[in-house]
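G., the chain you wanted modeled:
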Amino acid sequence: MHKLTAIALTLFATLFFVPSTNADEASVRKVLAAYVEVFNQKAADKVAGFWTEKGTHTDRETGERTEGRQAIQADMAKVFESSGDMKLSAKVDRFKMVTSNVASIEGQTTVVLADGDPIVSSFIAIMVQQGDTWLIDSIEEMPLPQPTSTAAALKGLDWLIGEWVDDSEDVKVSTTFRWTANEAFMLRSFNVETKDGVTLTGTQVIGWDPVIQQIRSWSFNSDGSFGEAIWSQSGVSWLSKATQTLANGDSASGTYVMERLDDNSFTMQLVGHELNGEPQPTGASVKIVRTVQTPPSASIPAN
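Predicted structure as tokens:
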């Protein structure tokens, strides 16, 4: 997937839903909502219409530059033709009106594809007002700053440390997250208990892979199944794209979406689930709560 699409489309898929603070910003967000609508229609010509005539995208890592509305439309058309399902999300760190008709946006984007690892980048975007319309004038994309240690890489998950429970009517799932020595890895252990007793236990090791520059995890369950996943952050959510070998030799895959509600609760949902390559129903969203609550904090990152 061309990085232009990863940064441009993802940014506008979520930016609109953050509350605006003034009339100019509200106008920009209204345009972005319309952009999302035509993107979901996979209409390359309409998507290109949201860019200025000489709009540009620059990849700072490779030096690649795409310039002009026609070139952008051609790139979008190729992506829409070749790509399947994709999930677009963004973490917007800064929205600033530079002048009365120029807006600057900074943040981080994540694109999850059905057949690939998540694409995570940081960006700077400029939008300009031409007449009564706001248009995209430029986007610059760059790699995320790399952590200085494995502990630093996993810092965004430290709020999980502790004991949690998903206590439904028929099944109780107890989960514990803890650090290894030097906070080099995070360990997750869980028990699944029904009215007949504990039916499944498992262990997950979460760590930083310095080769692919992403968080990875490896899971081992008492029924003989095992798997691994690639993690990426999107605002207050974490996406875990997983593959698993079942005890009978079948293969499963899907993306777990973990959304942090506050310091003491989060939700988990399995999307894009496949079994031996066959699509399965999307899992229900499950709420998980901390067994011993901690005082409220303002540590949840802004969308």
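Confidence is low (pLDDT under 50) at residues 1-21, 297-303.

Shout if anything looks off.
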